[in-house]
Amino acid sequence: MARVVVVFESRYGNTKRVAESIIDGINGVGGVEVSLKELKEVDFKGIPSYDAILIGSPNHFGGPTRDIRGFIDKLSELTLEGKKFAVFDTYMGKDFEKAVKKMEKRISEKALGLKRLASGLSIKVQGMKGPIVEGELSKCKEFGKKIAIQLKEG
After folding, report:
1. Distance CA 89, CA 15 (A)
2. Distance from the first to the final alpha carbon of the chain
3. For the chain, how many structural domains are there in total?
4. What's the pLDDT tens digit per position in 32-80?
5. Are the beta carbons of 85 and 114 closer than 8 angstroms?
């Protein structure tokens, strides 16, 4: 059974809700074991025991948070050959996919063994504290389903 860890940082709970909805989508497919970890709870040395890592961040000044950037940079210390990743962000205004693109680029530079599972997911919130725009959470479940299916197919 494939194992996935979803690592996120969330200031107001919106990115956490996105992570939970992605997990709902993964669980809907079945056959994939998934763990949800807030960044500060992550057992960093345990990351290689997972087949895939999903990383989520609010868009913070046009990119991921400082701590998420640091986490991605630290991935270079681990042996992640053959492992997979996907990223997601929450944004407002015109910042669609800004943090996602920067996370994908940073992972490709820092964690050389990781292969991208899916294009990043960018979810719109209505203001700094949210809420998530209506209809966006269904995209999260679809994203989760897509990831689970790809992991099961190998």
Report:
1. 7
2. 11
3. 1
4. 999 999 999 999 999 999 999 999 999 999 999 999 999 999 999 999 9
5. yes
pLDDT above 90: residue 154? no
Residue 124 is which amino acid? K
Q: Residue 71 belongs to what domain range?
A: 2-153
CATH of the domain at 41: 3.40.50.360
Buried/exposed 113-138: b ≥16 CB within 10 Å, e otherwise: ebeebbebbbbbbeeeebebeeebbe
Helix segments in 13-122, DSSP class H = 14-29, 66-74, 98-110
Residue 111 pLDDT class (50, 70, 90 cuts): very high
CA distance 19 to 6: 7
Dig out the tokens for 8 from the structure. 């996120």
Global pTM value: 0.97
